[in-house]
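[audit] Reproducing an earlier prediction to check determinism. Same input, same settings, fresh worker. If the tokens differ from the archived copy the diff job will pick it up downstream; this log only records the rerun itself.
[audit] input (443 residues):
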Amino acid sequence: MKIFLKILGLDDNRSEMLPGRDREKKKAADSRDGVFGRAVEIAVTGFLAVFLLTGCGGERMETRREIDRIYMAAEKTAEDRAKAYIAEKYGIDASAEGYWVQGYHDFFAPYINSNVVVFMEYDGKKFCAGIDVDDETVLWDNYQREEIGAVLQEYFTELYHLPWPYKEDTKFWLESAPNYHTATPAEWREKGYDHSNMVNFYFQEQTAEELLARMNRLKFHDSWLSMEQPLDSLSFEAGDWPVCEGGSVEWNLRVYTSPEAEYTDRSVEYPDIAGFPYFKEWRRTRITDRGTEEEELSGESWKFHSAQNKGITVISRLPFEIEDILCIREGAEEWNVDRGNGKTEAYRLVSDVYEVTEESPDSYYAAVMHVPGEFAEQYEAPLYILSHNKETGKVKIVKYIFSREELNALSADESNRDYKVHSNGTCGMSSGFQYAVAERKGE
């Protein structure tokens, strides 16, 4: 009984109340019981594990068999059904290049989904079709996504008297759309496929209002190289966007200083610090229907201010003139970086020391330091951006600046190559720290 009480965490301590000799006997007995108890604990744990696995095994096997059935059905029918559907709807003989089953095996969370996305191509145009292996009436595609997107973009730009964007991307999901995964697998994205913007109707001059009434989610990601009116002057009203009940509309709007910004504009949640040197304005706004009389309006908007000094630029999204929050001082001859184990490395400063005096209003960087390639090319040795903690005095390396030769050596098909090239030399800045460009002495 004592062993099971111990397993349950209910064993008592009455042995502490016994006389000395009896207590020693009791401890010896407890030691023997402890060995036996540990064996029982292992046995009970194994029994519980077998019980749980056995109890779940039947359901797990049934789930596995169902997923296998979907895969087999997709292999037999998905591509042929998609081709027949596209031929009937558009009168074209498109080729099926492969398919993607939405259900999948997973030991902890297997997922049953009978929808299948088929990747197709016709006359150089890549698009997707969706079928359900268990329901022949479920047929979707995005062959006309450009035509539908153009109608929505035209509605947006005309409503707010905006020029046509330099870059535009419109994504939407219909209220009645099947349960497709949001992200297209990387192997198919790299081939130029995207299964968003799928519809189950033939687009034929429908108005924007007619299209909006079908939509559960609509997203604009538009950018301009010039804009007469500030982005924060745009006033979004829910009544202008009659999406279906519970739907949402989101705008991700940018004004760039140069086309290279598109390579660093990677986030809709906040401005990527690599984009600071290329952004003029950044805005994200969302209207969400909460099923009440008033829809929820949320978002953020920033303008970017910059200052140049001896070839180095500091850019901020804080609501202050950059000159009011930036301190520039001549630095010491060198800073020492702690490498641990009592070792330090000496770095010779090749720039002034920069400091931002205002804190970021959120968890993201609000200011960056940008060292262009022209500045780095003045030096033969590799350059680094160092930070100096004013409170602790600790100095550390926060950025290595790649040389032009190193950037040119990146292969054209390397992942994120353009981002690496255009983010080179850009480093986030925090208040309470000083920043400078340096080269390691003796390197």
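[audit] rerun output stored. Observation attached for the diff report: The longest helix spans residues 20-90.
[audit] end
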